Amino acid sequence: MELIFTYFFLIIFGGCLGSFASMLIHRLPVDDHLITLSKPRSFCPQCKATLDFFQLIPFVSFLLNKGKCLKCNVKIRINYLINEIVFAVFVLFIFHTMNLLDPITWLIVSIVISLYVQSMMDMETLLLSQPISIFLIIAGLGLNIFVEFFTLPIDALLGLIFGYGILFCINQLHKIIRSTDGIGSGDFLLLGGIGSVFGASSIGPILLMGSSITLSLYFLKKKKEKQLPLGFGLGIGAIFYCLLFLFLSDA
Ligand SMILES: [Zn+2]
Q1: What is the pLDDT of residues 195-206, one digit of tens each?
Q2: Which residue numbers delimit the Prepilin peptidase A24 N-terminal domain (predicted)?
């Protein structure tokens, strides 16, 4: 019985993390001083009506309203529900692989949220948040220098340099050949952050996984755009790398 309550609580908590991620994904790229991370309260993107308290409860709100806004009846994008489910599953995974009382666990959770937000934001808007990438760099270096969690301190430092450097160099080459930027500078910083967290040795596999994910997204999408969201693939690739690492180190 106790375990059922624990699971229930964890799923709701994961759902809240998912809503928090949705909020960051939708608000960070908005260039409007009236919409900040803390204000205004959550509202319907269509009719701008403020959501009631019970509409803020993860899963419940979506199911009760059958995925529609109560005021204007317009369908709410399924992405909100997907983000809640993804994080509910993630929190259950963390519960089984890590110690919830250890502060390092929560640093890892915030790293995964950051990677997820960067991915989804890049997919929707082709924008990446600089403060989030800087957070990844600081968190990664701190985690590996002080507790050698994912890798050795020197590998984390090299990861920052290689991650940033490799995309920077590819872009310089592209500039020489085609005289335009081929890769956004946001991607350099993101891969630098990923390198700081998982080490220089992770850059190869994550870059390979990331570009394959981004290319598959391109082929799956009906509307072909000129720019590809490389950051989307990098973020998802890094999350897979992280989950595999936690799973293997737990086993
Ligand atoms: Zn509405």
Answers
A1: 999 999 999 999
A2: 12-96
